[in-house]
Amino acid sequence: MxxxxxxxxxxxxxxxxxxxxxxGHIGPDGDxxxxxxxxxxxxxxxxxxxxxxxxxxxxxxxFSEKFAYLPGYDRIxxxxxxxxxxxxxxxxxxxxxxxxxxxxxxxxxxxxxFCADHHITNNGFADVCRILPEASSTSEVVYDLMEPAYxxxxxxxxxxxxxxxxxxxxxxSCTSRHTMEIAGACMDFGIDFGExxxxxxxxxxxxxxxxxxxxxSEMQSLLEGRLVFSYVxxxxxxxxxxxxxxxxxxxxxxxxxxxxxxxxxxxQTQNRQYKVSLRSNSDQVDVSRIAQxxxxxxxxxxxxxxxxPSPSQNIExxxxxxxxxxxx
Length: 328
Prior knowledge:
CATH class of the largest domain: Alpha Beta
Strand order of the largest sheet: 6-7-8-9-11-10
CATH topology of the largest domain: inorganic pyrophosphatase (n-terminal core)
Number of domains: 2
Structural class: alpha/beta
Number of strands: 11
Strand content: 15-25%
Largest sheet: 6 strands, mixed
Number of helices: 12
Order of helices and strands: HEHEEHEEHHHHHEEHHEEHEEH
Distance between the termini: 36 Å
């Protein structure tokens, strides 16, 4: 469906629905938070301007308090409402329905569903989809779906946050001229863009700094330095007083290792599995293919999956997949 046509459908679905839920993926990151709350604020503006009354909720797992500045953060529902069904389910930044976690039921029960995403592995699981793998972020995708009249500073703060986090502050190759044009448009609303970058992307508390130091001090390399990796066990996380929400930023530090083509970071979750993040520094390496081999997905340069409770076995398997790309 063409972009202009999809935008019309998006607007129609919002106006016709009496109740709307907005979902994102498990383990929400900056783009997930920014795109979902951006849509929530946008719908609120549209309804206020047109005199419409709708029940609209965002459902996401708990995530980092560093995003608490986002308008609507305190209104997010972290647990499902039993027996609740909505006319419209809007899904942001989620490549497949399994990634909706405990909120999957809302998509299944909704009369209609709309998915906005930029993951190349998205198979179009919603009724209507706008999937742009070439986009920098889902925040970029949803911004282009919005009617400009209903975009304000609150929406802009959310969209800008999503752009910042999925582009690594506009450093990654997914950053385009259009990405920067949207960022500029958001800045025109008077958002504190410097504070958003510093507080949500770079700032860490003491325990986060300490676990980052531990992960860096124990990093290793394989394949003649082309692969660098590190991992943190559940026991180590407990020792440092950190949780899953404190693992942000570690993979990005590994990624900047000079000479490496691929970076991998693993941390252990409550069910003893390892959450694996992969980053590519080279056009030779498509980490989405590696993640897909283990039931995950993502982008060419950034992807993730879950693997077994054995870091050594995991990195051996990842190395084997990487070799397939480097030494065909």
